[in-house]
Amino acid sequence: MTPRSAGASAHGALGGCGVLGVGIWLAATQGSFATLSSSFPSLSAANLLIITGAFVMAIGFVGCLGAIKENKCLLLAFFLLLLLVFLLEATIAILFFAYTDKIDRYAQQDLKKGLHLYGTQGNVGLTNAWSIIQTDFRCCGVSNYTDWFEVYNATRVPDSCCLEFSESCGLHAPGTWWKAPCYETVKVWLQENLLAVGIFGLCTALVQILGLTFAMTMYCQVVKADTYCA
């Protein structure tokens, strides 16, 4: 057994456990904080982390078991699954940068549709999400505060849009509300933190490439050993 191969697989499994744990913790403690999207109501941070963590943990477990048992099938399965994940991530990244404008337009339209679910029964998560974003980023609405006028059919915004929060402050004059659009504000924040995101992405890709290399190296060694023994 190659220690580096088993170690890489074990780290993958442990990493998956960590992501899964964070997802379960978010679901348990922050369950009311859900997605802002009306088209994908189950696409919350907690659900994404749980699915990703479980999948990564399963792949890491397959690789670790294959390395310990020196099993060709498990090593090959680990290699193919990890390669599939790597190609999927690369494809998503390429499509995202190629269709940024279209994604922007669709995202804004979908978020505006989601505003109509604000404060309605069964949408506590979406309501809390918008309240937190508008309060923390000091913004109001998707494009501007007038987005809320269509929701309420009146010159009104949620209280989380107010410069100084108070009960029913969303009924006051527009001068007492945040003017910045939430979509652009959050987008600028993400762009300012793009370096950290890029470093994380490169580190993830490097770990995956090392995992692929170790898995294929050990697979070849096991095949050669089996051929020699035969």
UniProtKB/TrEMBL annotation:
Segments passing through the bilayer: 12-28, 48-68, 75-99, 194-215
GO cellular component: plasma membrane; vesicle
Disulphide-bridged cysteine pairs: C140-C161
Compartment(s) where it occurs, according to its Swiss-Prot or TrEMBL record: Membrane
Membrane topology: Multi-pass membrane protein
Gene Ontology MF: a single term: antigen binding
Homology family: Belongs to the tetraspanin (TM4SF) family.
Name of protein: Tetraspanin
